[in-house]
Each structure stands twice: as structure tokens, then as C-alpha cells.
Amino acid sequence: MFSERKILLVVNPISGDIDKDEVFEKVIEMAQAEQYDLRIYTTTGEDDLSTIREMVGNINPERVLVAGGDGTISMVAEAVQGFDVIIGIIPVGSANGLAVDFGVSGSIAQVVEVAFGDHIVGIDAVSINGEVSLHLSDIGLNALLVKNYESSDTRGKLGYAREMLKTLTEHENFLVRITTDQEIIETEALIVIIANAQKYGTGVTINPAGDMSDGFFELVIAKKLDFIETARILAGSTDFNPEIMQVVSVEKASIECLDKEAHFQIDGEYKGMVRKLEAHILREYIKVSLP
Q1: Considering only CA atoms, which of 155, 192, 149 is closest in space to residue 170?
Q2: What is the DSSP code (8-state) at residue 199?
Q3: DSSP result, 33-80
Q4: Cα–Cα separations (whole angstroms), residue 187 to 124, 174, 250, 278
Q5: What is the Cα Rg of the chain in Å?
Q6: Quick check: 62 and 38 in contact, CB under 8 A?
Q7: Per DSSP, what are the bridge partners of residue 188?
């Protein structure tokens, strides 16, 4: 019998180093068990956002499952705006920061079960120069790392480690002015993180105050490279040295690079060099199925 319940699976075939065949197998099994009419879209890198949006409008699915990394999830979240759909996350990217923050982990079968589950949470997003960030975006050191990683031939943790060493030799600090409703901060910076969530995909907590449903985002300002402080953070410390790391919670902010352009990335996708960013919160931007 033809089912009126529809579900769309969006797969990024080049994300991470995980074979996607198991994703297709497990989603098809679950869709049949739950009596969904399943449609599948594989991203191409060419006008995917518009194509997904058109498919959602035509199909009217109850859920859109996303098999990819943070960038793919953010793109799908933007594509479904205006539609009453639930997003399910199947983390198969190189860095799955959103999944780490949400506690979505385990085997493909386990995360697919969560994606079809009934625990639904509304989460915020951040608009940055008109583009949407669900997780962590930044200017400075990490954005340059993302750029170097995207252009490299090596994937996985080995690729990140190799490109990190390269990035540390290339990066230069920059002078930044941050204007919020509460204050103006002017400082030299290694990186400025626009954080809706708490953790990078490595599991390191960089924004301990982060709550993706509280109507605020945080600016995490690393003023200089300090190996002792970095080691403490990597070891799990969230007691930041204020002379090195500053965190402010805001609803909107203007971030201006005063002396030169800085590298910029959104949710793991390199966006180029920028001079100025305007950011504001987007409350309850999407609904996500979580553990």
C-alpha cells in the first residue's frame, strides 16, 4: 500500500571516510518498518540548497535525515525553513561537532534509530552575514585550518593533525573590535568563535556556557596562543584564563577586523577572507530528533 508518510534522506557522498552503503541499508530498513515513503537525494556540490528546498516543497516529508557533517546539516536546515519538518542527524562527516554536542553517537543502526525517534527539540541558529550557523563558526586560526584541510588529500584525524602543524606556521594574529549591546571589546586575537554549541567535533569543550535552545550565542575570544592553556582545554578544563580566553553571551554582535582580513568558516565550511561580520540569533530555527 502507498504510504502518505514521507521521509527524505540527504547524503553527502564525500563527507568523512565512512562507507555510505550501510547508511542507505539501515535507513531503507527503518523506513520500511515505519511505513514511510522514502526519497533519497545525494548532494553534488552544485546548487544543492535550492534542489533540496524544491524537493521538500514537492514531497512534503515529515522528516529529513542528513547523512554528512556539520556543513551538510546546516545547509539542509536552511533549505527546510518555512516547512514543518523534523531533522534527523546521521553523523558521517570528518568532524561531527553537532552530533557530539547532541550526544548522537554509536553504530549507524543506533543513530538511524535516533533519527526516526520521538524526542524532538527546537534549537536556535545564528545568522552570520546572512548565512546560517548551527554549530561553531569562527574567524582566524581554525578557519585557516578548515581551508587547509579542505585543500589537502588526507582525511580523518591524520589529515587534521598534519594540517594543524601547517596552519600554526602560517597563521598571524589580527586586531579585532567586537560591538555588542553591552560593551565594545578591542583586542588582538588568535581566533574569534561564534558559538551556538559547546564542543568541536574532537569533543573539546570550547564554549561551556553554550545552550542551543536558550536564545543566546557566545563569542569565544582567544587572544593569543598559549600552549599551557591549550593543554588544559584539551584535557577538559573549562576554567579559562581571562587574560587568554574571554567568553560573552549575546543576542547579536558586530565583529570587525581592524588591521587586515581574516579567514572565516561556518560549521566546517570555509567561506573566504572577511573584514566584518554581523551576527544575530535565530530562535528555535529547526526541530531535531535527539537521543
Answers
A1: 149
A2: B
A3: HTT-EEEEEE--SSSHHHHHHHHHHHH--SEEEEEE-HHHHHHHHHHT
A4: 28, 8, 18, 18
A5: 19
A6: no
A7: 175
Q: Are residues 112 and 268 in contact, defined by beta-carbon separation less than 8 angstroms?
A: no
- Strand residues in the chain grouped as ranges (E): 6-11, 37-42, 63-68, 86-91, 120-128, 131-133, 136-140, 174-179, 184-189, 191-195, 217-222, 245-250, 252-257, 262-266, 269-274, 276-289
Which residues sit opposite 174 in a β-bridge?
A: 189
Q: Read off the pTM.
A: 0.82
Phi, psi torsion values for 106, nearest 5 degrees: 115, -165
Hey, what amino acid is at 25? E
* Cell, residue 202: 574532537
Asked whether residue 1 carries a pLDDT value surpassing 50, the answer given is no
Q: What is the tens place of the pLDDT at every residue in 62-109?
A: 999 999 888 888 899 999 998 999 999 998 877 677 888 888 888 899
Residues facing residue 57 across a β-bridge:
none
Which amino acid is residue 258, in one-letter code? L
- DSSP one-letter code for 267: T
Q: Which three cell numbers stand for residue 212?
A: 542551543
- Domains assigned to the chain: 6-118 (3.40.50.10330), 131-283 (2.60.200.40)
What is the per-residue pLDDT for 151? 65
- Intra-chain end-to-end CA distance of the chain, in Å: 31
User: Could you report the per-residue pLDDT of 4-55, keeping only the tens digit for each?
Assistant: 799 999 999 888 767 788 988 999 999 999 999 999 999 998 999 999 999 9
